[in-house]
Structure formats: C-alpha cells, structure tokens
C-alpha cells in the first residue's frame, strides 16, 4: 500500500510572519525544539527558514538578529506538497530541488512538514528517531 505524506509528516507546523525578527525566530526554535520554521503572510506559505539560514545568512556576517526579518533571510517560495500525495513524490521533489524538507500545505494553509528523516524512517523503521545523537544544550 502506498504511504501518503500525511502518514509520515510531522503534523502541525511552527509558523512566523515575514516581519518577525531573527531573534524572535531563534527563540521560537529554541522554545519549541525545532530547526525550521515556515514563514507566512496571512495563511500563505512564502518561505522556509532554518537555524542554518540564521547562522549563515546573518550571524556569520555579524548582522544584528534584531535588525533582520524572517522574510529577508528565509528561502523564498519553498517547494510544497499536499498531505494526500504519495510519500514517494515528496522524496522525488526533495531530490529534484535539492532540499531536505517540504512544508505540507492543504487548502493553501500549512499543516505540517515532511523531512528527509521522516521519509528515511518510513523506508526503514529501524532508522534512528528524530533528534537521536543530538547533544543536550551546553554540551
């Protein structure tokens, strides 16, 4: 039986407005223990921002994280997928666009996120769970 994106995705999604400062986004990531956040304008997905985006596109250049918005640093117009699409289609989109995660959108609204790790766990249930091997903060 073909698995659908809704069967493997992480339901729910952390979302910020385009105007949110990078400091706000980083605090949200810390508080919710996530490494990626969907950037939205109203109910529309306009970007995706990762902890790496903040590090490479702002902090590494010495930019004050209070002076830049999520919209100015995010990857704009991310590739999205619907929850009722086959999981294999998500994998194909990730390969084609060289990305590791896709916002899952239903009726134009973000409802989840599917990552390369989600798809790997789907193929091999023995694969390490999300966060395995991650050190506790400060270690």
UniProtKB/TrEMBL annotation:
PANTHER family assigned to the protein according to its UniProt record, in alphabetical order: CBS DOMAIN-CONTAINING PROTEIN (PTHR43080:SF2), CBS DOMAIN-CONTAINING PROTEIN CBSX3, MITOCHONDRIAL (PTHR43080)
Lineage: superkingdom: Bacteria
InterPro entries per record: CBS_dom, CBS_dom_sf, Diverse_CBS-Domain
Keywords from the UniProt entry: CBS domain
Residues in CBS domain copies: 9-66, 74-130
Protein name (database record): CBS domain-containing protein
Gene3D superfamilies xref list: CBS-domain (3.10.580.10)
Transmembrane segments: none
SMART domains the UniProt entry points to: CBS
